[in-house]
Amino acid sequence: MKARIALLPGDGIGPEVIVQARRVLEAVASRHGHGFEFAEARIGGVAIEHDDSPLPAATLELCRACDAVLLGAVGDPRWSSPDAPMRPEQGLLSLRKALAVYANLRPVRGLPALAELSPLRPERVSGVDLMFVRELTGGMYFGPKERTTNAASDLCLYTVPEIERTVRVAARIARTRRRTLVSIDKANVLETSRLWRATTTRVMKDEFPDVAIEHLLVDAAAMHLLSRPADFDVLVTENLFGDILTDEASMLVGSLGMLPSASLGDARPGLYEPVHGSAPDIAGRGIANPYGAILSAAMLLRHSLELLREAHAVEAAVATAIAGGVLTADLRAEGAASTEEAGSAVIDSLVR
Q: Does residue 111 form part of some domain?
């Protein structure tokens, strides 16, 4: 297969982890006879610095011309003030909207070698293997905003089609797993959540009667993610709730640095990125965890390029590297592996 992949390293540790993800993709291409072409562009703080825009037109043009987009991280203390006229995060939000990637997939899978790192007891996180599907281009993040001297407002707005398409993505994934879906809302308080629940109930009854549906209020979901995480399979929710809950769920596997994500729409390109931020405090030190970025590359292989065998091989190689003790500083206090050593361990497992 031939594919063109846009690389957006971004800010902080983004360039460091993207280098390792690219190395892994190059190893996959070499072993399986694929032709992957890579092209880099700027986004976030580095783009503000060089292009006076968090999402330059050239970056968006490149992304639209590629089969998939792999992003590192955005965020820079120089533009971190809420009152800054431009912020790095605006580049990512704008890119998601421009590419019409409305469903964010965030898998959370526990590894036995990391069980001790979770703040929960090892037996509590044993068997955790869940998938969050977060609506990505609607809700409070994208609704009209107002601010005066004495008040501010952010409008949370959802339409039926936005909810339907996200629920369908989640339900189709649930069909490939345990055929159970949990929809998370705040329907006891919010009108948008009441619309979400009613729409989800109808879609599941009419189109996915073979998938069991359960509704949970977001506060109850937050509690149950800690008390019974292994009971969950696929969870679907709106933008703000999904943003918060997936960060909570990352602690089930010990580190935010382990989690990948895929943002998908109805057509290519998909957008892939690790869940972690730019971590400017450790940028340039060679100690960042690249596993989230590498696992995001595995999701790219699966969802955009439909290379299922290769995606599974990358995921297995990451598990092998971790089981072999190749742990970065966020996973091990002493004797930690460098970012490059972790990437090399994955490649070594791939080529054996």
A: no
Q: Domain of 286: which CATH number? A: 3.40.718.10
- Average pLDDT taken over every residue of the chain: 95
Residue 187's domain comprises 119-253
On whether both 235 and 140 belong to a single domain, the answer is yes
Residue 222's Cβ-side half-sphere holds a number of Cα atoms within 13 Å equal to 12
Terminal-to-terminal C-alpha distance of the chain: 22
Q: Is the link from the previous residue into 9 a cis peptide, with omega within 30 of 0?
A: no
91/176 same-domain check: no
> pLDDT by residue (tens digit) across 334-350?
889 999 999 999 999 99
pTM over cut 0.90: yes
Amino acid at 22: R
In degrees and rounded to multiples of 5, residue 328 shows phi and psi of: -80, 175
Q: Given 234, 253, 272, which residue is the final one in a domain?
A: 253
CA distances from 212 to 14, 173, 174, 202, 205 (A): 39, 13, 9, 13, 9
Residue 246 has pLDDT above 80, yes or no: yes
Residues identified as active-site: 141, 186, 219, 243, 247
